[in-house]
Design goal:
heterodimer; A: alpha+beta; Glutamine Phosphoribosylpyrophosphate, subunit 1, domain 1; 8-stranded mixed β-sheet; B: Glutamine Phosphoribosylpyrophosphate, subunit 1, domain 1; 8 helices; 31% helix; globular; Ntn_hydrolases_N (chain B); EC 3.4.19.5 (chain B)
Chain lengths: 326, 324
């Protein structure tokens, strides 16, 4: 075995004009999460526990688009979704339409372990959460002022605003950017909120796991489900690898992106980085997305065809890196 | 080359002793739906139109677990889901948690064609259906006496409540018998290819008897219960949790693409080696006009036809064939 490895992401598709301060905050959060994961791995926690605890941390922080800080639906509410997969036995759990559960990834894990099903949504998921006694809060808890502002902008413009973290003042000066914005999610209907979060881990026994969590698209229709809770699309883990994706949901679903990485490793015998590169290059067409992956051999890889991806990775031999750009 | 079509009405523990009054209506329905699909292909309708219209017909038939005749949730309600995929463009649409929409598969198609999204569920999907003017009815329309009875029997056979504090075994090998020889799992689906090699797949279901409210199965998950690309189109049926973790529909296509397996071998590999026994069945067609319908359950209601005039129907491993 090659030792443990971990990768985290906070979304693919970053505005090149993102204020420096935001970039720093993002890197600090990614570093903190990586360190959390690394301590857990050093304490011999299994991969499935590590991905859950790291994604919980990402959900609790309002910076990225998951848990608190989730993008808002057209109604101004938050509907969260998440999935988790354990490479051992390919057990999986997923939730969608979660509105009061503080940590959707933990609810997804409970679905996997304590229900007869693999995927629960909306009122059924909320009911299950109560049966399980998980921590619930008002929907308002997840809503940040910043996102309220962005929703308003999105509705007024009713078009894709490239990156919602540019302060409104800056919008005039970056009019060039807005006029020909780097587009994601092709249709002029909503603001693209790329910062889905995810974590993939292989522990020192070679067990892989993956988890992904998100609030979805800004100004999305109530009831819209993206790629994050879909096993094989946003999340996948088997005995060879663990994968978490982020980016344009439609492209990830059509490309069954997470499963694809594992499939080319398994059926074509590609190594991890080769598999990641192949999938990003060949499986996305015009779609924009990124992904992180680990292999049972202790390797870590990431790939994206977007402008930037918030990410961090570390391996047992001491390698550690946090980045946004290429 | 040439067109081909295959459809299913669910795989499961279909006991050989199933009484004629349960078997015959399903058999008749499948033959009828097969003919509808064949006529549509002969009339040069696109595979996407063909799979939608065949699945609509199956949804409307109360003898299958989709649309009217859907199995019931633990609360005695119906929650339907469906998915459609166009192999040429890989565009897809999916819906879950429907309670009043008469044809879930048609709503899935509208999601695919009229929204920037792929998947809508529950209240949001219902609201969208109304906005789009799709036919909706009172939820009671979908509930049949057979399913009320089925739920009752299932609950009685499972008198011990699942203890939610304990880990749950998901790879259940055998269904709990209900004594009437009737399978509790099931789904309907259709795959088709025209003679230009354009492929499409569609699947629709009421889900799993006594399922938790809000439970989503494999049917609306692209790559699990439904998939189509430029090589093949697949619609799977069986135990949703197993089909999902096995990414069944995608794997058939992946084996063809990455390992160069034929449609038949790829489908057989997935059904025999990648999903536990008694958990899955599928129908698939290839761009070349081939058909395969493997299953690892006791039976699967299925029918297929190809342009050369060959048509086939089966429930258990043996089949009946005739010339179109």
């Amino acid at each position: 075995m090659g030792g443990w490895a971990i990768a985290v992401h906070g979304g693919a598709g970053v505005d090149p004009n993102l204020p420096q301060q935001r970039q720093e905050e993002a890197k600090q959060l990614l570093t903190r999460c990586l360190n959390l994961g690394i301590s857990a791995l050093r304490s011999n926690l299994p991969a499935i526990d590590v991905v859950e605890l790291v994604v919980r941390e990402l959900e609790s922080d309002p910076l990225f688009n998951s848990g608190r800080g989730s993008a808002l639906t057209a109604k101004g509410t938050v509907e969260m979704e998440a999935s988790i997969m354990d490479g051992c036995g390919r057990r999986c759990g997923a939730v969608s339409g979660v509105t009061t559960v503080k940590n959707p990834v933990s609810l997804a894990r409970l679905v996997m372990e304590r229900s007869p099903h693999s995927y629960l949504a909306f009122s059924g998921a909320e009911e299950f959460a109560r049966q399980q006694g998980v921590e619930v809060v008002d929907n308002e808890y997840f809503i940040t002022e910043e996102n309220v502002g962005m929703l308003k902008l999105a509705k007024e413009a009713n078009t894709i605003v490239f990156d919602y973290r540019i302060p409104a003042l800056g919008l005039e000066t970056c009019s060039a950017v807005v006029e020909s914005p780097i587009q994601m999610n092709g249709l002029p209907i909503s603001v693209y909120a790329p910062e889905t979060v995810g974590c993939v881990v292989v522990d020192s026994q070679g067990r892989c796991a993956a988890a992904t969590s998100t609030g979805g698209l800004m100004n999305k229709m109530t009831g819209r489900i993206g790629d994050s809770p879909l096993i094989g699309a946003g999340t996948y883990a088997c005995n060879l690898c663990g994968v978490s994706c982020t980016g344009e949901g439609e492209a990830i679903i059509r490309g069954t992106l997470a499963r694809e990485v594992a499939a080319v490793m398994e059926y074509k015998g590609l190594g991890l980085q080769e598999a990641v590169d192949f999938v990003v290059k060949e499986r996305l067409d015009e779609g924009k997305a990124g992904l992180i992956a680990v292999s049972s051999k202790g390797e870590v890889a990431c790939g994206f065809n977007t402008t930037g991806m918030f990410r961090g990775c570390a391996t047992e031999d001491g390698f550690m890196e946090v980045g946004i750009w290429d | 080359m040439g067109w081909a079509i295959a459809l299913h009405g669910g795989a499961g523990d279909i006991a050989p002793e199933i009484p004629p009054e349960r078997r015959q209506p399903r058999e008749a329905a499948l033959r009828h739906c097969l003919q509808i699909g064949v006529d549509a292909l002969k009339a040069q309708k696109s595979p996407l139109d063909v799979v939608e219209l065949v699945v609509r017909e199956l949804e409307n038939n109360p003898h299958f677990n989709a649309g009217k005749g859907s199995v019931l949730t633990t609360e005695g309600t119906v929650e339907m889901e469906a998915c459609i995929m166009d192999g040429k463009t890989k565009k897809c649409g999916a819906v879950s948690g429907l309670t009043t929409v008469v044809n879930a598969i048609s709503l899935a198609r509208v999601v695919m064609e009229k929204t920037p999204h792929i998947y809508l569920a529950f209240d949001g999907a219902e609201k969208f259906a109304r906005e789009q003017g799709l036919e909706t009815v009172d939820p009671s329309h979908f509930i049949t006496p057979a399913n009320i009875e089925r739920l009752k029997q299932f609950k009685e056979a499972n008198r011990v409540q699942i203890d939610y504090a304990q880990p749950v075994e998901k790879d259940v090998k055998k269904e709990i018998p209900t004594g009437d020889g009737d399978s509790q799992i099931g789904t309907v689906g259709c795959v088709a290819v025209d003679n230009d090699g354009n492929l499409a797949a569609a699947t629709s279901t009421g889900g799993f008897v006594n399922k938790m409210v809000g439970r989503i199965g494999d049917t609306p998950i692209i790559g699990a219960g439904t998939y189509a690309n430029n090589l093949c189109a697949v619609s799977a049926t069986g135990r949703g949790e197993a089909v999902m973790r096995g990414t069944v529909a995608r794997d058939v296509a992946a084996l063809m693409e990455f390992k160069g397996l034929s449609l038949k071998d790829a489908a057989a590999c997935v059904v025999e080696e990648r999903v536990p026994r008694d958990n899955v069945g599928l129908v698939a067609v290839s761009a070349k006009g081939e058909v395969t319908m493997p299953f690892n359950t006791t039976g699967m209601y299925r029918a297929s036809a190809t342009e050369d005039g060959y048509a086939e129907f089966g429930i258990w491993p043996s089949v009946e064939n005739w010339v179109l």
